[in-house]
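I am still getting used to backbone structure tokens and would like to learn alongside you. Would you supply a protein for us yourself, any chain you care to pick? Start from the sequence, derive the backbone structure tokens from it, and show both lines together. Go ahead whenever you are ready, and we will take it from there.
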Amino acid sequence: METVRFGIVGVGGMGNGHARNMPHIPEAELTAVCDISPEALSYATETYGVPGFEKHVDLLDSGLVDAILVATPHYFHPPISIDAMERGIHVISEKPMAVTVSGAEAMIKAAERTGVIFAVMFQQRTLPVHQAAKRLVEEGLLGPLYRTLLIDAHFRSQAYYDSAGWRATWKGEGGGVLLNQAPHGMDIFTWLAGMPARVSARVNTRQHDIEVEDEATALLEYENGAIGYFLESVNEYPTGMRIELAGELGKLVIQDDTLHFWEVIPGVRAASDGVEAMWGHPEAKEVAVELEPQQTGHAAIVANVARAIIHGERLISPGPDAIYSLELANAILLSGHTGEPVTLPVDRAAYDAFIEGKQATSQEKQVEDQRITDPDHVA
């Protein structure tokens, strides 16, 4: 096999972005598309010159694809992905991989059982600044963590939420900022800092006429006693993401595409215990961190998955990794709505019951769907 034949399930919005990327990926070829909307399907088949299917099972059984990219609303990610896996078809799921951790675990188990390649579209892992930060953490240059911080500010208008019936509803999306805009930042954050053991959170619907949260804040407690501070919002402009990891031996700060790292000599606790002067303190030495150029963006994840299928290349964003950011999102939602701290891992049955309760009260939205790809998140 020299190229992997991809089908895209869901060609509204982001699905079209992925389809436009395919010709630029030598290891991949778009060979089929699927959408339940006749209009979206007709547009995709004519634009990309490939067969189209209204039902995903018909695409899976067509013999036209080796892998699929699932770009549907969130609740459909697990069943479509598992149907593909059971047929020996490899899967890339858009984020979030599922609405609930129980759904995510079902996907992971299906991939393990069938032996297929399974990845999630966390393309921000490909950015040189995040790759460099991961190397610093893996090399132990921060030492034991004392504090973490994630501030991830986005902006969405009411018009955005009014653009589709499934958006910002419990029945259609399963959450707000935590399930839609936050997963990328939360993936990088948990990838670098690891998982907290306990979460105390608040969720708000501050500025929009929607069912779900447009802001979430949390205090995080880690197993080693470290603390963390967390904010996700769609109510700010200018937007941006900041991650801080402060440890015994070093401090790391990511501000959007800029990385700073300070070596702390001889260490925070070591200096506290060892200096004799009343106002003594450790030395903080900023160290230049080399950023290695590499392919980035959505296309990099697709190419990586294709090479994993063809050559066995290591996955950048394997499916089992993607559950961590979802686990944190579920914990924050559960804590925010119950007003009680939540211990991780999240009680699967309790969270499933919470979501079922929210779905039961969810209201249908009467809007005209607009399938427009975000121009800032196509490459």
Summary: The chain is about 35% helix and 25% strand. The chain has a mean pLDDT of 95. The longest strand covers residues 235-247.
